[in-house]
Amino acid sequence: MVRFEVEGGVDPLLLVRLEKGDAVATESNAMVAMDRSLTLKGKTRGGFFGSIARKFLNEETFFQQWVEAEDEPGEVMLAPNLPGDVRILDVGDRQYCLSDGAFLASTSEVGITTKAQGLGRALFGGNGGFFIMATEGRGRVAVSGFGSIREIEVTEDRPINVDNGHLVAWDASLDYELTLNTSRSGLLGKLVQSQITGEGVVLKFQGTGKVLVCSRNKGSFLDWILSSRPTEKAAQNNE
Question: Which candidate in 3, 21, 48, 164 could, as Cys together with 17 as Cys, close a disulfide (CB 3.0–4.6 Å)?
Answer without folding.
Answer: 3
